[in-house]
Amino acid sequence: MIPYSFLDLALVCDNNTITQTFENSVKTAQLADQSGYSRYWFAEHHNMKSVASSATSVLIGHIAGQTETIRVGSGGIMLPNHSPLVIAEHFGTLASLYPNRIDLGLGRAPGTDQLTAQALHPNFFENAQQFPLNVARLQQYFSSDNSTSKVRAFPGEGVDVPLWILGSSTDSAHLASSLGLPYAFASHFAPAQMERAFEIYHQNFNGDTSGLKPKTLACVNVIIADTVAEAERLATSFYRMYLGIIRNERNYMEPPVASMEGQWNEMEEAHVKQMTACSFIGTQATVKQEIEEFIHYFKIDEIMITSPVYELSAKLKSIEAFAEIMQ
Questions:
Q1: d(CA 208, CA 94)
Q2: Is 277 left (phi over 0), alpha (psi -120 to 50) or beta?
Q3: pTM, whole model, 2 decimals?
Q4: DSSP tag of 68
Q5: Within 10 Å of residue 220's Cβ, how many Cβ atoms?
Q6: Could you give phi then psi for residue 128, rounded to 5 degrees?
Q7: Residues 320, 297: Cα–Cα separation, whole Å
Q8: What residue ranges do the domains of the chain occupy?
Q9: Which of 79, 103, 242, 279 could cross-link 221 (Cys pair, CB 3.0–4.6 Å)?
């Protein structure tokens, strides 16, 4: 058995308000907490009407306050959008409020389009190039050794906030290995380079930098229902959401349809299926077999799932069924 965790994109369905979406996240997190999940992470995205996790650190605090033991964190904070000092202060505050329960996953991408990235931070593209340096700055702000510096993070200094490097390409693998940090791969939407990225990470891991051992996490999509046909029907909401992304027609998550026939052309279907290749859709028995094979093949240390399902009751069922698989 390896640890299993959950990624919440705070997906806004066309029948829900933002407030209801956040209430659903609380219910989802509480079930994950009760079902043995190790972590509950939010991803920072912007300018997407179907994703409500833009104020990531605010949601982390809200969920941590509504749960008991599960670790809550970011999957991730897109560091080029922010000052490292501000992130140290935010997560130092969170870790002071909820000791030993806060994770800080860091990404290099903007989590949005280029125009919005510039609106978030006028120096975004320069910051993206300085991502390794800004990770080091963030580590320094958290360090007790920073006590003699003229710029200090309060709260934050001396607070234990585990850092993860997130990625969807081999670039992030090089950085995570050089820093000796845990590495989480976004295989739920960009699986193409995962195998090579994990190879690079293990081959080049520098534990002397951090004193840690290598640790890999892969995030995948999971939809479990009583029958394969029902799981595939539920997955049409998920596929239509990705179809909207490649068409640049981003909208609220829509209810499932009978099938995807007539919804996409062959090229669009191939594109969506490539992006979502690491998806496990079926019954508890079929998903169990496929997940076992996936974990064994990639030799990951932890698995994280996201369940992009329209109806909350069906989503909760997937979350509970997956926990039973992992237990």
A1: 28
A2: alpha
A3: 0.96
A4: S
A5: 23
A6: -60, -40
A7: 24
A8: 4-326
A9: 279
